[in-house]
Write a structure and sequence with these properties.
Length: 72
């Protein structure tokens, strides 16, 4: 959304809903929607378990199994 659109929206809102002293008292919500679609040129995900480097090594930490609690 551009500044021009917001400025125009404010002009319209002020003309319709301003107080006698010209002040606008309002709340508003901004909703944002984005979309994405895969393209054949994008990198494809690797097969689970096919990594050549361990994440724990990349992060410099100790690997823990899913059943282990931190500090065990």
């Amino acid at each position: 959304m551009s500044r021009r659109i917001l400025a125009r929206a404010f002009e319209i809102y002020r003309a319709r809903f301003s107080d006698d002293d010209g002040r606008v008292r309002a709340t508003f919500e901004i909703l944002t929607a984005t979309g994405w679609a895969p393209h054949e040129s994008q990198q494809k995900p690797l097969r689970p378990g096919s990594a050549q480097t361990r994440l724990a090594d990349a992060l410099g930490t100790k690997e823990q199994s899913a059943g282990e609690k931190p500090g065990d």
